[in-house]
Structures are given as structure tokens and as C-alpha cells.
User: Fold this.
Amino acid sequence: MDEKRKTSISLPAPAENLCDKHYATVMANLAFYLRYLRRHQPSRQKLRTHNDGSEGIIIVQVYWDMRTYNSLHSLAFALRWSVSYLIFVMLCLAEEGIVPGAENLEPEDRVMFFSNYDMKIKMWGAAGYIYTEFLLFSSSKPPNTAKPVAQHSRK
Assistant:
């Protein structure tokens, strides 16, 4: 298994409760949330969306393997969202009861899928760069490797 690396996300201060309550669920079902949020269209025609800091921001330490890190960054980049905002949206979805198997889901969202990230470089040099990111879905579910999380130290 890939070694987990420490990074941090910033969340609106009022979301600290959401993080404590739903972070483990979101990480255990990350592929589901990535698939669910695919319904938003990718765009390069807007500025990046970040969490609103008007009510204060908390910094939460997280530990992700590179597969998780790359998957989150791939979707966030395509949507022009910060990874912190992406995690916040997933926490809000979990709070609303949007979880795998929930009755209010479309049939295609009830099936458990996992994601796999890859990047192909066509050209990378002084003249410019061309690359493609892939986030592939399969019908197999990987083993659950989620661990309990402690406040402000997400593993």
C-alpha cells in the first residue's frame, strides 16, 4: 500500500463539526463521492472556487496516499474548485444523507465504484506542454483501508 503523506485542507470554521462527523465516511466512500460530483461539468472558463472565509477558517491536517491525493486533485482541477472546497462539498453531501445505497440516489449512483488516477504526457518542454489526466471507474470495490480519525489529525 502507498505511504500516506501529510497535507492540510482549510474548511469554514462552522464545518469543523461536519469534518469530525463525516470525514471518515467520505474517505471510506471517496470513489462514490467522486462519481457523484462528476455531474458538475468541468470548466476552464471560471476562477477557482474556494471556501468562504467570512466566518473564519480552520486548518485540518490530513494524511492521504498518492492515489487519493491525485484523485482529489484531478477532479478539483477539472471543476476549478480547491481541494478544500471539494472536501467541504463532500462533507455537506454526507450531512444531507447522500451516501452509497441511499434511497434518494439515481440508480447509477447506487452502485459502488472505485476510482483510479493516471496521467499521460504527450509533450512537456520549453515550447509548452500537453497532458491528459484520467480518473477511471471500475465495478470492483477496493478493500476498505479507512482508519479512525482523531480531531484535526485525519488519517
